Automatic annotation (TrEMBL):
It comes from the Archaea. PROSITE patterns: ABC_TRANSPORTER_1, ABC_TRANSPORTER_2. This is Oligopeptide transport ATP-binding protein OppF. Residues 6-235 form the ABC transporter domain. Belongs to the ABC transporter superfamily. It comes from Methanosarcina horonobensis HB-1 = JCM 15518.
């Protein structure tokens, strides 16, 4: 068995007196999509936010490639951070509304890749193609794009960092059904091409059953069961 990309052991989280997560444990293998299902308020987003260091849990361990990220120093975590990404329910909040789509797309490359201008533009065009974006989309501002097109830009930006693991928090819940299917197909294609793993958070079991390899069920901050989906990952 390959080492899991992500292992969560006994994760606990309280906000004041309110205990939101209790003894949450699961792991995600390379190239796997793990679903995280639960009702509103069950603690799904809190788990995702703990994984990317947006919240500090009150107990437990989070291991990425076997390394405990909660005991890491800021500098050490910063090196690992490009490899662990999160997509949010409102993807437009990840983009700068004053920059055109292509500028938004290449921004992480400018910050992290060290590529010179020509190579950077070429890589940006490759990522746009990979995520099914057309030149006319790239010339627009985020406010002039549809929800599905914005989610494609967000995915392209994230793929620019060659992540090993993506927490996708309700990435399609704001989209209508046909666009939802396109984005899920795109996520599957990116997984086939790069081996990226996903933690796909949703309160829509139908969506999770379509693309997950396993689904963890969360109730009141506790994992009650993990279901194996015994079929291929294609929709
Ligand atoms: N920063 C915070 N301070 C206090 N309570 C919080 C904070 N963040 C989340 N909570 C509470 O923790 C609980 C779990 O929230 P969380 O957002 O993780 O649930 P969720 O399952 O993702 O819900 P939804 O599906 O509605 O997004 C909720 O009761 C929420 O009010």
């Amino acid at each position: 068995m390959p080492l899991p990309v992500l292992t969560i052991n006994g994760l606990a989280m309280s906000f004041g007196a309110s205990e939101v997560l209790k003894n949450v444990s699961f792991s995600v293998a390379p190239g796997e999509t793990m679903g995280l299902f639960g009702k509103s308020g069950s603690g799904k987003t809190t788990i995702g936010r703990c994984i990317v260091w947006l919240e500090k849990p009150t107990g437990g361990e989070i291991l990425v490639h076997g390394m405990d990220i909660l005991s890491m120093r800021k500098k050490e975590f910063r090196k690992l951070r490009p490899k662990i990404q999160m997509i949010f329910q409102h993807p437009e909040t990840s983009l700068d509304p004053r920059m055109k789509a292509f500028e938004n797309l290449i921004e992480p490359l400018k910050l992290h890749s060290g590529l010179k201008k020509d190579a950077l533009l070429k890589r940006g065009e490759e990522l746009a193609k990979l995520t099914g974006l057309r030149p006319e989309h790239l010339a627009r501002y985020p406010g002039q794009l549809s929800g599905g097109e914005i989610q494609r830009i967000v995915l392209a930006r994230i793929m620019a960092l060659s992540p090993d693991f993506i927490v996708a928090d309700e990435p399609t819940s704001m989209l209508d059904v046909s666009v939802q299917a396109q984005i899920l197909h795109l996520m599957q294609k990116l997984q086939r091409e790069t081996g990226v793993s996903y933690l796909l958070i949703s309160h829509d079991l139908e969506v999770l059953r379509k693309i997950c390899h396993r689904i963890a069920y969360l109730e009141n901050g506790t994992i009650t069961s993990i279901e194996n989906i015994n079929r291929g990952i294609r929709i």
